[in-house]
Design a protein that fits this description.
The chain has a single domain, classed as Ferritin. Helices cover 79% and strands 0% of the residues. It has five helices and no strands. It starts with a helix and ends with a helix. This is DUF2383 domain-containing protein. InterPro entries: DUF2383, Ferritin-like. Pfam families: DUF2383.
């Protein structure tokens, strides 16, 4: 077993998750009519695309093979189905809550990988940067949701 096999497998999980999240945000961007939400979803989609590129490079640096698909659905799938329902019924408040939950799942996945003992420093720095960016997005979403309700 190679030294970084477990880390590479978990990084591939993040790669797949970010690819799915990018697609989710892009579809939300196309289907929402509120301009502020369009901006949030566009930025989130581009952000996740960039995360994926950086994760791929880091996986290659660890002599791993990047994977973009698996036969099983990720944790995001259930939330994606909920998001589609909220879009259909134009329920922006619950839509924002579900997007927040999607980001929370992402943070949890990043934290799981960050807890690995033999994580290379460059990988750790990359994951921290990406996780912190997602958390910043959660704060922004929370503010937007509070302003939306008020």
């Amino acid at each position: 077993m190679k030294r970084f096999d477990v880390i590479i497998e978990k990084m591939n999980d993040l790669l797949i998750m970010n690819d799915e999240a990018e697609k989710i945000y892009f579809e939300l961007l196309e289907k929402t009519s509120e301009e502020e939400l369009k901006i949030i979803f566009k930025e989130s989609s581009l952000e996740r695309n960039e995360f994926g590129k950086n994760l791929k490079l880091e996986i290659l640096k660890l002599n791993g093979e990047p994977e973009y698909s698996r036969k099983t659905k990720s944790d995001l799938y259930k939330h994606w189905m909920n998001l589609r329902n909220f879009l259909l019924f134009e329920d922006d408040k619950n839509l924002l809550e579900e997007v927040y939950n999607l980001k929370a799942i992402s943070v949890k996945k990043y934290n799981e990988l960050l807890s690995e003992m033999s994580l290379p420093l460059s990988t750790c720095k990359l994951l921290l940067r990406q996780r912190d960016t997602i958390e910043d997005g959660m704060v922004l979403l929370k503010r937007h949701k509070e302003a939306y309700v008020a």
